[in-house]
Amino acid sequence: MVVKRGAALAAGLVVVAGLLGGCAQKPGVAATATPVSCGTKAEAALPLFSVGSDGTVSWHCKDGSVERGKSMTISTAEVADVVALADAPDGAFTGADAIEALVEMSTVLRVAEEEGVTVSDDAASAWLDEQGYEANDGTMVVAKYSILVTRANGGDGTVDPLTEEEVLAIDAGVTAAVSSLDIVVNPRYGTFDPEQFAVVPPTWVQKNAVLPGL
Questions:
Q1: E strand residue ranges, 42-141
Q2: Strands in the chain per DSSP E
Q3: Does residue 210 sit in helix, strand or coil?
Q4: Cis before residue 27, ω within 30 degrees of 0?
């Protein structure tokens, strides 16, 4: 559920790995998460997919249907923002940790929005200001996710709680969303392990993820 970091993301996780494996990331891109549809690649006709200018991925299935979903790009700037936010001792929170967190949090926020549950930029900025953090692309994701988790846990008097129906709908949506993600990581941060739903950093990087408010 969204009330616990990563719980829904681990449930039923089936990541179709290697779709874009071996492809170099563009400058400034830390990771991409592409929704794989038609069940699996084997059930899709050629061309397997096309990507629109707005990031929408269209999968062309053998039965003639077309299934669409939004691709996600995590920038190196967002990763740096979240690593700085963690403010952990050197090596205790890596770029790999930040990518994992950003993919998870962004997926939950996107699914919540599809269910009609949103967190405004103003609310996120206010949360960051109260916590004493600077507002930027990466920290705004953390703030919105933290507020959503607070609402899922019944609120705290400053934000309205989500209904049980909303929590269940978001939980189910996140489980479905992550089951169709193909995640490709910039090699400077490591490689993605679909079994653990984790970014494995280079062997010389120590890893121990903790984010404030999560």
A1: 44-51, 56-61, 66-70, 72-75
A2: 29-35, 44-51, 56-61, 66-70, 72-75, 181-185, 191-193, 198-200
A3: coil
A4: no
User: Would you state the pLDDT for residue 123?
Assistant: 95
Residue 10 DSSP code: H
Euclidean distance between CA atoms 172 and 20, whole angstroms = 26
Query: Hey, what's the torsion of the CAs at 195, 196, 202, 206, to 10 degrees?
Result: -160
Sheet holding 66-70, edge to edge: 44-51, 56-61, 66-70
Residue type at 65 in one-letter notation: S
Determine the residue type at 134. E
Token output for 95: 């770029």
Please tell me whether residue 106 adopts helix, strand or coil conformation. helix
Greater confidence (3 vs 145) lies with 145
Q: Per-residue pLDDT tens for 88-102?
A: 877 788 899 999 999
Q: Which residue has the higher pLDDT, 114 or 64?
A: 114
Question: pLDDT tens, 42-93?
Answer: 444 444 556 666 656 565 666 666 655 667 889 999 999 999 988 887 778 8
Cα separation, 116 vs 50, in Å, equals 27
pLDDT above 70 for 14: no
Q: What is the dihedral of CA 37, 45, 41, 99, to 10 degrees?
A: -60
Q: Residue 41 gets which letter from DSSP?
A: G
